[in-house]
Structure formats: structure tokens, C-alpha cells
Amino acid sequence: MNRISWLAVPDEHSAHEGVQKLWAKAEANLGFTPNVFRAQALNGEHFLAWWNDFNTLVNRDGHLTHTERELIAVIVSTINRCVYCAVSHGAALREYSGDPAWADTVAVNWRHATLTPRQAALCAYAEKLTRTPTDMTERDLTPLRDAGLNDHEILEATQVTGMFNMTNRISSALGFTPNPEYHQRGR
Fold it and tell me: Which CATH class for the 17-59 domain?
């Protein structure tokens, strides 16, 4: 196996029991275990706590659509130059949108993609919160509201942006590499 992290990575026998179950579920659902699951499994309890929050914000039904959440993930991950998350969530955006060319354009420069006003507002908000969080003011919510987002959706957009900023930093700081499978998904 190629190196997927700059830290030690537990194997199927040494990983926390709950992590082993998650790996088996991912293998059954995706056909592979995401490297981020393996790389963060070194501290099993912490990984499972992160996964619970991540899974709730990104994978389960919420106030935003799956495409909108993946759109935010790609914007944040591209700005942060997080290879793992940009590749893996770029694949998810291709799958959810059903439009690989659009998703690839978003990943390179969202301003060149054909976006709805709602999507553009989400991208601009995620970008500002990622680049200059100390500059955020209440006025930054106005374009979101003007695009039709309610307070539940705005909170979720903020939480997803925050989750990806944290996850990007973990992945980049420890050299997580994306699974090869992600490069072909949604194409």
C-alpha cells in the first residue's frame, strides 16, 4: 500500500473496533475505504467523534442539498489547497451534480461556472469565511438571504464551511493522500 499519511496508520487488526466497523461499512457502500478513514484512525475515539460530526453535516439530509454542501466543500478545499478534500469532494460534486464539466469548473474557479444566484451566494460566503474570517459581519448574511436562504440554511452553510476548514487543515498538515478511486468517480 502506498503511504497515505505522514503518521502511522493502523491496520485492520490494530484499529479501534468502532473504526473497523466504519471501514467495513465504507467498503460495502463505496467499494473502498477512504484514506482519510485510515489515516485518522490512529486515535480511534477522536476519529469517531470527528466522523459523527462530519457525517451529520455532510452526508445526512439537512437544510442544504447534498450538491450545495459539496459545492461548499470544494470551494473551501480549493482555496485551502487541500489535495485530499479537493479531490474526494470534487468527485462527490461531480456525482451529485451529474455534470463533471461544471464540477471541474467550480473546482478551478467558481466564478467561471454557471451558477444560480443561490449557489453564487454560497460560494462567495464560503470563500470569505475561509479567506478572512475576522472580517465577517452581519452584512455578509444579506446576499444569502437575498438568494433565498433561511436562517437554518445559513447556519448549516457556516457549519459546513467551518468543518471543511478544520478537515482541510488536518489533511494537509499530515499529508493525507486521496484514494485513486476518487479521480474517476462521477466521470
Answer: mainly alpha
